[in-house]
């Protein structure tokens, strides 16, 4: 049975492996798995005609121009960020704004270190 994933909060939901699928993907699962996903509102059933549209869309992507491929990459990145927002887990960034680095450096230079033997100012 074919289903379209409406939301995904984990790679395994109700015992169904969703690691290869993203929100919006249509894929085939067993009837039991489909019933579980649909009952928990993780997916919706896909009609017979809708699957053929997916096949035609896949054929169009294979003939895509570089601009089309760029749009697909951007759409995937936006979808990844949307999923991170839903999970509230963002990937760490190695770069920081220069203002933040300067502020932290100034703070460290002007910080007063208190020891138990040092009288407070």
Number of helices: 4
Low-confidence stretches: none
- H/E element string? EEEEHEHHH
Write down the Rg.
24 Å
The total of beta strands comes to 5
Average pLDDT: 77
Bin the helical content: 40-55%
Order the strands across the largest sheet as they lie in space.
4-1-5
Question: What is the CA-CA span between the terminal residues?
Answer: 73 Å
Secondary structure category: mainly alpha
Q: What coarse outline follows from CA principal-axis ratios?
A: elongated
Q: Main sheet?
A: 3 strands, antiparallel
Strand content: 5-15%
Task: Characterize the structure shown.
It is a single chain. This protein is mostly helical and 121 residues long. The chain has a domain at 2-63. The protein has 4 helices and 5 strands. It has helices at 31-39, 48-62, 66-87, 98-110, and strands at residues 2-5, 12-13, 16-17, 26-28, 43-45. It has a 3-stranded antiparallel sheet, with helices on both faces. It has a two-stranded antiparallel ribbon with strand order 2-3.
Nutshell version of this structure?
This protein is 49% helix and 12% strand. It contains 4 helices and 5 strands. The protein is elongated.
Keywords:
about 120 residues; mainly alpha; two-stranded antiparallel sheet; about 10% strand
Task: Write the SSE topology.
Elements lengths: L1 E4 L6 E2 L2 E2 L8 E3 L2 H9 L3 E3 L2 H15 L3 H22 L10 H13 L11
Antiparallel strand pairs: 1-4, 1-5, 2-3
């Amino acid at each position: 049975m074919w289903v379209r994933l409406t939301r995904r909060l984990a790679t395994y939901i109700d015992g169904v492996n969703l690691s290869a699928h993203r929100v919006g993907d249509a894929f085939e699962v067993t009837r039991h798995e489909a019933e579980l996903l649909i009952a928990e509102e993780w997916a919706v059933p896909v009609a017979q005609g809708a699957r053929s549209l997916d096949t035609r869309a896949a054929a169009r992507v294979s003939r895509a121009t570089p601009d089309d491929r760029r749009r697909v990459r951007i759409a995937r990145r936006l979808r990844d960020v949307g999923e991170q927002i839903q999970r509230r887990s963002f990937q760490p960034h190695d770069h920081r704004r220069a203002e933040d680095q300067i502020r932290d450096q100034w703070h460290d230079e002007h910080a007063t270190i208190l020891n138990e033997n040092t009288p407070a100012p």
